[in-house]
Amino acid sequence: MKLHEYQSKAIFSQNNIPIPKGRVAVTAQEAKYIAEELGGKVVVKAQVLTGGRGKAGGIRLAKTSQEAEELATQVMGMEIKGFPVRRLLIDEAVSIAQEIYLAFTIDRSLRKPVLITSGLGGINVEEAARIHPEEVHTLVIDPLSGLHVYQAHDAAIFLDLPHSHWKAFVEICMGLWKAFLTTDSTLAEINPWVITDDKRLLALDGKLVIDDNALYRHPDLMDLWDIDAENPAEIEARKYGLSYIPLKGSIGCIVNGAGLAMATMDLLTFFGGRPANFLDIGGGASAEKSAAALRLVLGDARVRCVLINIYGGVTRCDEAARGILVALAGLDKNIPIVARFAGTNAREGNYLLSRAHIPTASTLVEAVQQAIAMVEGAEGEHPHQ
Ligand code: GDP
Ligand code: MN
Question: Which of 11, 107, 228, 341 has the most Cβ atoms closer than 10 angstroms to its Cβ?
Fold first, then answer.
């Protein structure tokens, strides 16, 4: 679960991390009042659950409360990467002397939390870090003993922070570590954390991503969940109890069972294909659930073909096939599909699909190879896409 900037910064503030003064507005008029309270010079910030708002024009500097109202009107009507702006954070504007990146996250291969710092903070941090990896410092943290002061000092040395800022920097690192730990986050990020011209240290932007599996022990955080602001595909998946994770490839995958889904993706990759998603429709999936799965996958514009792999046990292949046909009837998209059914009612499933001219494969290898050939065929037809 991603928290909005204003929610993340509120939690940072509770952990003694200084943040700019500011409040949330839902109308342009409210933005104007807040700007007046803050002395006129403010930043108008779109609150959407996606990155790169600055580059998209969702972060605007206003010199007067009048201008804040105008900018708020503009930003409020925007859609950033498909996310409509419904709320604005109006923060006091500051003059920035230096932008720094600071984050705690989990390094899966090390199985440990890490503190990542860089002097290249700001809106181009990803690009900058790719070109200058030596400018990014990673400190591994022992999960049992936690963050030590000497580690924060180590980061301060790397960042070349003037000694006068060290005490405050240690407090911010400790505060961010505490926020990361106590909220069971997978990411606690400040970008940028800034030193202002008047030598103040402030977290200008904040992002917390809470581990969904730990949400049960944070009822207070659950209340922060802004379901309307989430990716519509994720909401849809949650509604039908589907585990759906979009990836970057072009072959949509619909599979029952997480292990089988992994194996399907592995086999696709092995033969040179690229999965567009991980999708587990679960055991005993109804036609309705299969239909929802297909709609989700076909809703992804990158998908060039769909591979359906059902191992029938409790799940009946004919039910899955019915769901596929129902979903296809309601969509006007011409994306090739190949299915491989095995187990309970596989023959009936195959019959239903072949009657609708949807190819079926008798083995998974065959299905994977067909899916890859279909993508290549689709790309051959549209060489400019
Ligand atoms: P993001 O693009 O979604 O990461 O949004 P940020 O909140 O990080 O803002 C993007 C950029 O806007 C920051 O890196 C700053 O350079 C700039 N910015 C944000 N707040 C202020 C401010 O108060 N004053 C000034 N001068 N720039 C700001
Ligand atoms: Mn940022």
Answer: 341
Q: Count of CB atoms within 10 A of residue 167's CB?
A: 10
**CA geometry: angle 131, 136, 139, nearest 5 deg:** 155
Among 68, 92, 116, identify where a domain stops: 92
Mutation choice for ligand 1 from 19, 48, 59, CB with most ligand atoms inside 8 A = 59
- Burial of residue 346 (number of CB atoms within 10 Å: 0-12, 13-18, 19+): buried
- Are 339 and 244 within one domain? yes
Same domain, 291 and 350: yes
Cβ of 51 less than 6 Å from ligand 1: yes
Ligand closest to 50 (CA) is 1
175 close to ligand 1 (CB < 6 Angstrom): no
**Half-sphere exposure of residue 82, counting CA atoms within 13 Å on the CB side?**
7
Ligand 1 atom 2: the closest Cα is on which residue?
54
Q: What pTM value is reported for the model? A: 0.76
Its domain, for residue 288, covers 231-379
Q: Which of 222, 243, 275 is the last residue of a domain?
A: 222
Give residue-wise pLDDT tens across range 48-89.
999 889 999 999 999 999 999 999 999 998 999 888 999 999
Name every residue whose Cβ is closer than 8 Å to that of residue 163 and which is 6 or more positions away in sequence: none
Token pair belonging to 249: 């490839």
Q: By alpha-carbon position, which residue is closest to atom 19 of ligand 1?
A: 204
**What is the CA(281)–ligand 2 centre distance, in A?**
35
Tell me if 80 is assigned to some domain. yes
Assess whether 101 carries a catalytic annotation.
yes
Domain co-membership, 264 together with 339? yes
Together in a domain, 294 and 370? yes
pLDDT at 380 over 60: no
Q: Is-contact 242 279, C-beta < 8 A?
A: yes
**Contact 189 CB / ligand 1 (< 6 Å):** no
